Amino acid sequence: MSDDYLWDKTGQPDPEIQQLEEILGTLRYQPKPLDVPRDLVVRRRRSYIPLLAIAASLLLALLAGGIWLRLRTHSDIPPQQALMETPKPEPPRTKSAPNPPVVVANNIKHRHRSASSAARDSEALEAKEQLLLALRVTTEKLSLVQKKTQIRNQHKVG
Amino acid sequence: MIKPTLIFLLIITAGMVARAQDSRLQMSSLDHLAAKASQTVDVSLDERLTRLAARVLSDKDADEKAVKKLIEGIKGIYVKSFEFDADGQYVAADVEAIRSQLRGPGWTRLVNVTSKKEGNVEVYTLFNGDQIGGLAVLVAEDRELTIVNIVGPVDLDKLAKLEGQFGVPDLGIEQKKKNDEK
Question: What percent of chain A has pLDDT over 90?
Answer without folding.
Answer: 14
